[in-house]
Predict the 3D structure of the following.
Amino acid sequence: MLFSNSDKCWNGPQRSLQVRLRCGSKVEVADIDEPSLRCEYSALLTTPALCQEGRLKELQDKLEAVKMEQPQGHDEL
């Protein structure tokens, strides 16, 4: 997706954003960058809408496994 013709940067071009989409277990901005350093941004958005059903189930299982591995708390000294 490309969003262009936004507000003009001071002493530069109009702002723009190129969004790359990737299969993911939830909708989230996974990465954002300004590769040209001139008000032209690039972002990576993950979303389950792009996943095939088998891949989505695999990602959900991985997410659950990671959650189970997380420490549940700690004892105070």
